[in-house]
Amino acid sequence: MPRPEPTHVSDTRTAYDTVAESYAEQTRDALDGSPWDRAVLSAFAELVGTAGPVGDLGCGPGALTAHLASLGLDAFGVDLSPRMVEVARRAHPGPRFEVGSLLALDLADASLAGALAWYSLIHTPPEQLPLVAAELARVLAPGGRLLAAFQVGDERLHIARGYGHDVSLDAYRLPPDFVAGLLTDAGLLVEARVVREPRPPERTPQAYLLFRKPG
């Protein structure tokens, strides 16, 4: 008999289904105003190159998946929210988009040359993040890269209003050393750490961590 779905998973899916259209509209040009994001994604794309497929895991409305594809990567997107996947398919007809969970990716072992976890770790309680780290390491091929981005801190925030809608979900700010430890425990190596100061409307520093799977 299947185990019940964790509450944080169903809460996250419901919230992002609710905000999918407005989220896509309000974040459509986010990369245009963030040179740091573009620089880090460009470095990731150059390192991965044409080695194989790249999964944007927690892709939301697909803008970053499409950006990775524009940089020459064989990129596809996976998101927990069916509504986000619908929006992504409509807005970006080139890449493939599928519904899926970071806790159980429908991907073969060692099948990805690259994986992007762009603010997609933040809704998983920290005590359950080792399960996500193990899954990310599982799907990476030897020599593959993982890029993770997240807000820096050490606290839980409850979100009751987002993108013009009433929602109910938790988000976690994370210490970079904690995230680095999770992924190294899962068998990856840290290649780079970047922590930048917040830019309005951000309230906390933002971290980018790049990992490589040995081999």
Please report which band the strand proportion falls in: under 5%, 5-15%, 15-25%, 25-35%, 35-45% or over 45%.
25-35%
- The number of distinct structural domains comes to 1
Decide which structural class fits the backbone: alpha/beta
What is the succession of H and E elements?
A: HHEHEHEEHEEEHEE
Report the helical percentage: 25-40%
CATH class: Alpha Beta
CATH architecture descriptor name: 3-Layer(aba) Sandwich
The CATH homologous superfamily: Vaccinia Virus protein VP39
Oligomer: single chain
What fold name goes in the CATH topology slot? Rossmann fold
Strand order of the largest sheet: 3-2-1-4-5-9-8
Largest sheet: 7 strands, mixed
Give the termini separation. Answer: 37 Å
Shape by Cα distribution:
globular
Q: Compute the number of strand runs.
A: 9
Rg from alpha-carbon coordinates: 16 Å
Outline the low-pLDDT stretches. Answer: none
Tell me what the structure shows:
The structure is a single chain. By secondary structure, the protein is an alpha/beta fold. It has one domain (7-212): Vaccinia Virus protein VP39 (Rossmann fold), CATH 3.40.50.150. The chain contains six helices and nine strands, in the order ααβαβαββαβββαββ. It has helices at residues 7-27, 35-48, 63-70, 82-91, 129-139, 176-185; strands spanning 53-57, 74-79, 97-99, 112-118, 140-151, 155-162, 165-173, 189-196, 206-212. A seven-stranded mixed β-sheet has the order 3-2-1-4-5-9-8, sandwiched between helices. Helix 1 packs parallel to helix 4.
